[in-house]
Amino acid sequence: DGLDLAEGESHMHREMHEQPISAERMLRGRLDARFGTSHLGGLNLDARDLRAVKRVKILGCGSAYYVGQMGAQLIEELARVPADAEAASEFRYRNPIIEPDTLYVAVSQSGETIDTLLAVQEIQRKGGRVLGLVNVVGSAIARAVDGGVYLHAGPEVAVASTKALTSMFLGFALLALQLGRVRDLSIADGQRIVAGLEALPGQLKEALDLEPQLADVARRLAEAPSLFFVGRVRGYPVAREGAQKLKEISYRHAEAYQTSELKHGPLALISPAVPTVALVPDDELAERNVGALHEIAARGGPLVVVTHAGVDLGDLETSEAVDLTRIDVPRNEAELDPVLMTVPLQLLAYHASLHLGLDVDKPRNLAKSVTVE
Ligand code: G6P
């Protein structure tokens, strides 16, 4: 890591490519392969406290909110504890119900986002307990929370978050493992996830090696006035994050949708002028996802499919009439795949911005951290 850039390099480019290293640092010393669990020193919660947790509520803004949705999904899958994420900027304005057996988690790269900090304070005022997933050591949120996990991503300068987001995801995976292993998660499943986490840094590198292909796709998509990003269940927050990145740094309109909801409205907008980036992991929903791609193709909508090598796209790939680009990302455990699928979307947004000649690191109207309401 470092702040010195090579000639012509942007912070975002540098930070994307630091992900294999920053992910490894995030995991270092925290995985327990023998017992299929994790060690997180700073939680200030023992096994009994963890067992008493009935619900998890995650709060963050922007990318931290979307990765919070990925984290909630992970926690529900591995620990079978009801979990959800909410935009911290909305939370305190709806007089939220604060429950003593809910574990609140505030997620923030900077640790200075005022909306997230005020949500933390509101929870604490009403007797709730908050953990932090924060990158900047000693920041306001890091100081305010009752315990937490540092992200160890190193300094992140580009407005569009990349390596911090990846470390946030890993933080949720570590937390989900711990919550799971004091409940129903078997040692074998715990070990399966630990092995998956150990493989992730190398696979992040492989995903980054897709850069030339994504640069090509970005050049083709950059001129589209509007795009859809679609995914289901695990893939939906990834789609939201991908659309957000594109909006932030390429100023293209992008809308994220649940693939399953396309037929309930947005299909009306699909045309050869409106490309769709679709997340189709090799999971139990793959066939249904491919079905939805047919609906898009039938209306002439160009497709970029972010998927795994095992997924059969059938005649979508062979038909001359269909404009489809396939991006195969490395495959991990299904629960951990979302983080690998964020990487091509980072590369897509980055190269779209570059192609359009925009300031990748400092997009107009946005700040790296928003410290006033
Ligand atoms: C700003 C940035 C976003 C970021 C969000 C949360 O809006 O433009 O890129 O995701 O703040 O920042 P944080 O530091 O709390 O993660």
UniProtKB/TrEMBL annotation:
Residues 46-185, 217-363 form the SIS domain. GO terms for cellular component: cytosol. Keywords: Aminotransferase, Cytoplasm, Glutamine amidotransferase, Repeat, Transferase. GO terms for molecular function: carbohydrate derivative binding; glutamine-fructose-6-phosphate transaminase (isomerizing) activity. Its EC number is 2.6.1.16. GO terms for biological process: fructose 6-phosphate metabolic process; protein N-linked glycosylation; UDP-N-acetylglucosamine metabolic process. It catalyses: D-fructose 6-phosphate + L-glutamine = D-glucosamine 6-phosphate + L-glutamate. It is found in: Cytoplasm. This is Glutamine--fructose-6-phosphate aminotransferase [isomerizing]. It comes from Nocardioides acrostichi. The gene is glmS. The chain holds residues 246 to 618 of 618 of the full protein.
